[in-house]
Amino acid sequence: MKTPQLTFSLLLIILFPALTLAPATRIYKASQRPHTVVTPVTFNVPGLNQVGSFAAANQGPYRVTSFRHPHCRGTIALLPLYRNAEGSAVLTRLFDNPELRYGIIFSGGIYAEFPQLLYTLTIFQERAFQGLPFGGEKKQPYAFAEQGDCALAEHAALRLREI
Length: 163
Hints:
The protein is α+β, with helices and mostly antiparallel strands. It has one domain. Helices cover 36% and strands 21% of the residues. It has 4 helices and 6 strands, in the order H-E-E-E-H-E-E-H-E-H. The chain has helices at residues 4-31, 90-95, 116-128, 152-162; strands at residues 49-55, 63-68, 75-80, 101-106, 109-111, 142-147. The chain has a 6-stranded antiparallel beta sheet. The chain starts with a helix and ends with a helix. The relative contact order is 0.17.
């Protein structure tokens, strides 16, 4: 039978990463301003044309920007996510079309759901090494809704990683 002190020690060891990372991400979330984030309006891919943009909600920083491919029957809508997964469901609710492909673009990868652990670790790394030469650049997550077989999400993931 385990002693209460041993159980408490194991609990602290298990919870230590969460107790140290959570306050850092909350400080970051509160201090991040939407105007400091690069929007997909500046996103440029050869052969991909911006169709337009619109506000995704009555309030808040969410703005959807749409792009199309001139030679392939495909379009993609991109929505920058500023703090966490809170805006990732906006595109699903706006379009509500089972024929669309939905997902998240982050750090050059494409995910079916918001990569919360990777995002938290990336933010922690950015804050811990901010100002140092090896600190890395700020990475922006984007929600996307894609129609067609043009693989525009893959193109966007490569380009957004370069910004």
